[in-house]
Amino acid sequence: MPPPTTEQLPQIGAIDMLSPHAATQALLDGQMAALDAVRSALPTLADASETMAATIRTGNSLIYIAAGSSGLMALADGCELPGTFGIPPSSIQIHMAGGIPTDASMPGNTEDDTQAAELATQNIKKGDTAIVISASGSTPFAVTAAKSAKAKGATVIAIANNPASPLLKIADMPICLQTPPEAIAGSTRLGAGTAQKAALNMLSSMMGIRLGHVYQGQMVNVVADNAKLVQRATGIITNIAGVPSEIAKTALHDSNGNTKQAILVASGCSAQEAKNLLLAHDGQLGPCLQSITSNKDAIV
Fold first, then answer.
1. 135 near 167, Cβ under 8 Å?
2. CB 67, CB 134: distance < 8 Å
3. What pTM does this model have?
4. 26: buried, middle or exposed (CB in 10 Å: 19+, 13-18, 0-12)?
5. Which 8-state DSSP code applies to residue 161?
6. Does residue 111 have an active-site annotation?
7. CA neighbours within 13 Å on the CB side: how many for 77?
8. pLDDT > 70: what percent of the chain?
9. Which of the residues 80, 118, 182, 273 is marked catalytic?
10. 40 Cβ contact list (under 8 Å, min separation 6)
11. Quick one: pLDDT band at residue 108, thresholds 50, 70, 90?
12. Long-range contacts of 178-181 (CB under 8 A, 24+ apart)
């Protein structure tokens, strides 16, 4: 029997023989079923997110490696981490078979290029974490990269949609998203891709939480580098510090756009004191705010 995610025929029959309404419903049902497949991976996702957080805390790198549709999922996740959580771009690498496309061309033969996979992993070192993704779990580019990364001492988190696949067997932290057969056989950009995107979002979001970049459900390490995000950061400072928006804006300006620091400045610190507090408390905003409150109480 062919691998269920990649080649098995859909259980719904030939989707092109359905009415447009029924076909659309079948596509949605496939997406929903794929998302449900993430549920069984929740414990490993939680553990893997801590591994990712530890990697960033120690100044090491996250390396996303994948081909085709899985590569696009990796690209979307990795590229959003600096803006959302303030992760330094220098701490993130994204390697996609054939390179990151600048147009709509993604040649299929690049996923078989094991030499390129070796090249992509040449600078990986102990302490890094490689996040390797492949729907089939047998893509040569992904499998070779995982083997190489592991040999260099990196922790390998692998995401695949077929159980017992080679990629999952190599990984230190295997995440199997056993999605059902695709509505269009073999089109892993559908259900498999949706499950991968959800899993990656959860991994990186939990990493941000563990790093202290989320406080009271808000992105307190957001990089405010456009008008919309300055407004968002100002709102976050206003909510957490309990100050008017004008004071929040001034604090953000005095903190050079660093939202966490601005929250502390708006709460009564100098910019330097805010930096020192965050350093002392590993970037965790809660203990910093508690320290300010304790100092105020002591003075009173």
1. no
2. yes
3. 0.92
4. middle
5. S
6. yes
7. 33
8. 95
9. 80
10. 176, 178
11. confident
12. 178/4, 178/5, 178/37, 178/40, 179/4, 179/5, 179/33, 179/34, 179/37, 180/4, 180/5, 180/11, 180/30, 180/33, 180/34, 180/37, 181/4, 181/5, 181/8, 181/9, 181/10, 181/11
Of the candidates 111, 118, 246, 273, the residue annotated as catalytic is: 111
Give the model confidence (pLDDT) of 71-107 as tens digits. Answer: 999 999 999 999 999 999 999 999 999 999 888 888 8
- 80 annotated active-site: yes
Structure tokens at 206: 């939990």
Which runs of consecutive H residues, i.e. helices, occur in 40-188?
42-57, 68-85, 114-120, 140-151, 166-170
Per residue in 7-20, pLDDT (tens digit) is 676 777 788 889 99
- Could you tell me whether strands 92-96 and 155-160 are parallel, antiparallel, or unpaired per DSSP bridges? unpaired
Q: Which residues contact 257 (CB under 8 A, 6 or more apart)?
A: 223, 224, 225, 230, 233
Token digits for 123?
A: 């600078």
Q: Give the other-Cβ count within 10 Å of 23's Cβ.
A: 17
pLDDT by residue (tens digit) across 35-84? 999 999 999 999 999 999 999 999 999 999 999 999 999 999 999 999 99
